[in-house]
Amino acid sequence: MKFTELGLDEDILKAVLDNGYDEPTPIQAETIPGVLEGKDIIGQAQTGTGKTAAFGLPILQNVDLDNPNIQAIIISPTRELAAQTQAEIFKLGKYKKAKVQVVYGGSDIRRQINALKSHPQIVVGTPGRLLDHIGRKTIRLDHVKTLVLDEADDMLDMGFLPDIEHIIEQTPSERQTLLFSATMPAPIKKIGVKFMTDPKQITVKSKELTADLVDQYYVRSKEFEKFDILTRVLDVQAPKLAVIFGRTKRRVDEVSKGLVTRGYNAAGIHGDLTQQRRMSILRQFREGQLDILVATDVAARGLDISGVTHVYNYDIPQDPESYVHRIGRTGRAGATGTSVTFVTNWEMDYLRDVEHLTKKRLLPMKPPTEEEAFAGRAAMAEQSIEELVQKTDVAKFEEQVDHLLEQHDAKTLVAALLNEVTKSDASEIKVKITPERPLPRKKGGNKGGKGGGGYRGGNHRGGNGRRSNGNSSNGGGRGGKWNNDRKGGGKSRFGRDDRNHNGGKRNDRNSGNKGGSNRQFVIKEK
User: Fold this and answer.
1) Example GO biological process term (predicted)?
2) DSSP assignments along 485-519, one per residue
3) Over 80: is that where the pLDDT of 475 sits?
4) Apex CA 94: angle with CA 89 and CA 96, to 5°?
5) What integer pLDDT is reported at residue 513 of this predicted model?
6) Tell me: the pLDDT tens digits for 279-294?
7) Spatial contact of 307 and 237, defined as CB atoms under 8 Å apart
8) For residues 35 and 30, what is the distance between their CA atoms, to the nearest angstrom?
């Protein structure tokens, strides 16, 4: 099926084609015609399936440009998802010229109020900030024709359900309602019963997120060994783009700073960073200026960046669903990926829960030796130098080259260059990672099985060898392709960021990002 078969207008189709899309994803093919017909939709699909275009394209087509009122409201669980949804709809509507505005906590509400005076027809926002504007009467929803609940299960987990119901009650009863959720727990189904009229049910499984596309390994290690083993695995596998998950904010800070200290091109994101800082780091990661992103589960919700080749679980998650979401960052668009999970003897039962949910055995990986790690670094350095040779104007440095060759033989000079590029000195710097409280022992659990030897050494392939300036968002690097030169595919879609909580209450109504603990299911971001 082609986009031209879905009933979209020419100005909408032109923008779609300009963005390089020709064939709709399954969720788009099933959703767009139904929305254009005015039906309520319940769509069950994972992140990365093209949901934003599925509801964004028909909403754009239905907008009346002569009507200055808000005609569509899109509720998102997090600030970054809201911002990226607005950006995507704006891009898809460049010929339609509809006005799209985003509102979320952590941003100056006065600027948002001024922007709302331009009379946007489409508003994207987080629940708390939308309620702020409704209370201030800077947003009125009495002319809304379409309401979208995006990632409804995440909003439920974050405690937004009462806010969502209050927002829905401000809209006309005859509106069209579109609900999208990766899972369908009972409270989400109740929303469908209470606020929707004969909704069309659409269920799409994302092949991009299935465990079959990801080679999954685990490494058994003691808590204090994790960081050194992680760096050796990174040296051997040489991921092109990698996401490392930590359980707490402190963990993210320490691991990301430790990686930079060791010469890796890494940065971390969590809820204590400003929105501007998070967006900057994610932009650098998308553009390939960063090789490694360290994140909490909450900060990485909905992160959808093409080309991620590896996912590392520095801490195994407490619930297996979070594991599936984590490894779903790689193995997309038909490309294969790799995940490595670090697990202590105490946590083996959590690993079994993961295997039970995914119906796939994780392969044991033997930690690489320092010799294997050095070989990996040397291979990356060799390729980096090869690339430099291709770019270097020898004549420009002819005098210096002749002088150096008079003083030293060529072998010594190349060895010195390799030593510098491999950052051998940095790899020996001691890094301290604070131990985290272990996950609670499962009742009746065992003490873990035996480790294996699934590590596949050798075939080290090089990287781009980006240099470090000591800054955690512009660190110096170890890029490159991993052993089998697998690459991620597809287009970049949307990421999501985290929301702070205080005792289960939302903070996104405030322009600050104050204390509290971020929560996903029963996992707290500390």
Assistant:
1) RNA catabolic process
2) -----S----------EETTEE-TTSSS--SS-EE
3) no
4) 95
5) 38
6) 899 889 989 999 999 9
7) no
8) 9
Between CA 26 and CA 202 the distance in angstroms is: 10
Among 161, 311, 193, 166, smallest CA distance to 241 is for 311
Angstrom CA distances, 265 to 152, 234, 289, 460, stand at 35, 11, 8, 19
Confidence of residue 64 (pLDDT cuts 50, 70, 90): very high
Check: CB of residue 108 under 8 Å from CB of residue 85: no
Average pLDDT of every residue of the chain: 81
| 206-495 carries CATH number 1.10.357.10 | no
Q: How distant, in Å, are the alpha carbons of 396, 421, 468 from that of 476? A: 26, 10, 3
The reported pLDDT for the residue numbered 523 is 36
288 in Cβ contact with 241 (< 8 Å): yes
pLDDT of residue 324: 82
Q: Which two tokens stand for residue 11?
A: 């100005």
CATH 3.40.710.10 for the 3-205 domain, yes or no: no
Task: Outline which parts of the chain fall under CATH 3.40.50.300.
Answer: 3-205, 206-495
Q: Residue 300: what pLDDT? A: 75
- Its sign, for the CA torsion 488, 320, 252, 339, is negative
Read off the pLDDT of residues 417-428 as tens digits, 9 standing for 90 and up.
Answer: 777 777 666 777
Compute CA distances 274 → 186, 364, 425, 469, 500, whole Å. 34, 38, 33, 22, 12
What is the arithmetic mean of pLDDT over 43-62? 88
Q: Evaluate if residue 447 carries a pLDDT over 70.
A: no
Which of helix, strand or coil describes residue 261? helix
Q: How far is CA 429 from the centre of its chain?
A: 30
DSSP for 6-47, written as a single string: TT--HHHHHHHHHTT--S--HHHHHHHHHHHTT--EEEE--T
C-alpha–C-alpha distance, residues 430 and 11, integer Å: 58
Best CA proximity match to 262, nearest among 285, 284, 294, 288: 294
Of 299-303, 448-452, 465-469, 470-474, the range with the highest mean pLDDT is 299-303
Q: Model-level pTM greater than 0.70? A: no
pLDDT of the residue at 114: 96
Q: Three-state SS across 155-191? A: HHHCCCHHHHHHHHHCCCCCCEEEEEECCCCHHHHHH
Here the contacts of 174-177 (C-beta below 8 Å, separation 24 or greater) are 175/144, 175/145, 175/146, 175/147, 176/35, 176/38, 176/39, 176/40, 176/145, 176/146, 176/147, 177/40, 177/41, 177/146, 177/147, 177/148, 177/149
Residues in the chain: 526
DSSP annotation of 467 = P
Structure tokens at 243: 């996401």
**CA end-to-end span of the chain:** 47
Buried b (16+ CB within 10 A) or exposed e, 479-494: bbbbbeebebebeebb
